[in-house]
Fold this protein.
Amino acid sequence: MSRPVITLTSDFGQGVFVGVMKGVILNICPQARLIDLTHDLPAQAVRAGALTLLQAAPFFPQGTVHLAVVDPGVGTSRRAICMHSRGSCFVGPDNGLFSLIMQQDPDAAAYEIINPDFRLEPVSSTFHGRDVFAPAAAHLAAGARPGMLGPALPDPIMLTWPRPKVANDELCGQVLLADRFGNLACNIIQKELRVFLQDRPARVRLGDLVIKGISRTYGQAAPGEPVALVNSWGRLELALNQGNLCAHLGINPQNAYGMGIKIGLIR
Amino acid sequence: MSRPVITLTSDFGQGVFVGVMKGVILNICPQARLIDLTHDLPAQAVRAGALTLLQAAPFFPQGTVHLAVVDPGVGTSRRAICMHSRGSCFVGPDNGLFSLIMQQDPDAAAYEIINPDFRLEPVSSTFHGRDVFAPAAAHLAAGARPGMLGPALPDPIMLTWPRPKVANDELCGQVLLADRFGNLACNIIQKELRVFLQDRPARVRLGDLVIKGISRTYGQAAPGEPVALVNSWGRLELALNQGNLCAHLGINPQNAYGMGIKIGLIR
Amino acid sequence: MSRPVITLTSDFGQGVFVGVMKGVILNICPQARLIDLTHDLPAQAVRAGALTLLQAAPFFPQGTVHLAVVDPGVGTSRRAICMHSRGSCFVGPDNGLFSLIMQQDPDAAAYEIINPDFRLEPVSSTFHGRDVFAPAAAHLAAGARPGMLGPALPDPIMLTWPRPKVANDELCGQVLLADRFGNLACNIIQKELRVFLQDRPARVRLGDLVIKGISRTYGQAAPGEPVALVNSWGRLELALNQGNLCAHLGINPQNAYGMGIKIGLIR
């Protein structure tokens, strides 16, 4: 039988917080495999965390426990959630982190983590990653069922996202995320793009920048030139071939969603 | 039987040094579990490393080997140390990195690492993490006893820290560390705070900034407002709710201790 | 029998890309041990990646699979390569990443990765790390032979490097890499240095900076003073004892090679 996998996602950066959560897990479930998804989410960026998990979780084996901590409300009355979907579990604060995955699975089930047997006592008021979420994830990996952590949670917090809109023959979207290469991914997905374009030629607009055509690869643009393509997660993305579009446009990649940057697809 | 755990802590950042130490370990102890504590310590910051280990090590299973390399004296006459405390081992340069843990354990024992059988030959003069400490840690994880590495070390280097002092009804402390959220932790611990306040109301002072009361959570302050609380390691901490106090005050988080920032607790 | 080791090297930084590759690997080879070498290579810096692998790979157990993705040509006609050398495998884009290792092993063999059974379908045009290289590495770790991935690749891309030259009693080299401490390593290796100096005293020159003598350790210089030594990879390196030479000289460490910085060794 293969060993249980726990992924870890947070905005904790490179400090010691993540290592300590791993120590807590190994005390409870010594056989767990620990895989970092990312700890470089912008501080307290629940939306960036939710999008990251939506894109990454499907690439992990069924049975994986996904532990995620982006938790601006730690110590307040916000609840702790265990969400079960398609054979995998998601553990973290109930602030919408897992809501994009829940929206795609009508059979998903949520539980509130309240059972004191699955916590580290005393629970601090500022580091539930260590005291609540890591122990819960470790117990799940060691064989506990989600329902053992607490009662069903009927009303988990759900995030809503801006939807692309059609106006004047333009599909108007919005930037969701920037990656470390300075590429900008938006809320227009491949299917919407196809339905809108119907094989017609396209231009993509971001402020004064206009890009002709949807390329298949970054390399179809000359080095340093902008390019639009459908990225590896199925989203419309803008990039600079062998360059950094964020730096080129003066956009802070840590806050790309919060800036409300419009992307227009013109047919 | 569960597999031996080795944690790794350093100021090596995200480069290849840590990966190479892991390769060396796997050659000697293929079954070791390798857990990164942090490699983002400020360069050559022995004190920050010592505090990090003091706070994090207790969360790991007994029997863990903690390998730590913050080593400004590499290649000089500074000694290599293996320190044994409460069933766990600590391996690194003898510069005080493990001295805070030693001070808390009267039964701790230290050994000088000199046995050439537990090194990678030839030993370089600049990367003992690879050539001395990683092999020693791997042999310990594979079953070697600390005394096999070399003779007892009767006088390991010990760090001293500034202690909080009472003056004019104020408990005067000092900032020890900043975390990635820009929160500032100081040398006043929960017990000292309680003894000083005796349930009286408190104010916390950092330069011109004065915070009323000790909160239980960050969220008790309005977003963007400063807050003082006892953090998850039991230390008095100053923060900005949903903000970055270091950025707000123009403090470089990489050097928070070195700046000698005073924290005053007023009753 | 010990579990197969896969190392991961990339310019992906701290985002989610690396975690997703690990998920893909665990689906194919659940028993693989996953070790990060570094993901902090400068974006699209194939040369820095090649040098990193040359230095680090020898420290890993025979049989290790080294997965490396620095891939400015992703989605273009650039080929995917599996290179076998001294019992270990190297998987990534065919752009020279493994060519420094190949040059040192006359028995090295290269294969083009084209077998669709060892890919994740559909293959995206922008993330072959996930869709091509991670699956190939996982299958190799699970027991596939390199030749099963595709036919022999007779003409892999090879990198060439500037060689040190002697002129006017000076050995003229060039900076190859900067590390996180701001130390500068150059293309002059220990053997060349010995042959050139023949035990005579030396000076090392970088622009206006002149350093007398080759030290054995950083600590032989006073704190804050420059020092030249042979580093732990056998290369001539310039550093500032307990300081940062890059910062001191205004050199961007992310681009140290690209700046063509000359190092002169004068006897």
Chain A touches chain B through 30 residues (CB under 8 Å). The longest strand of chain A covers residues 170-178. The helical segments of chain A are 17-28, 46-56, 99-103, 128-141, 190-197, 245-249.
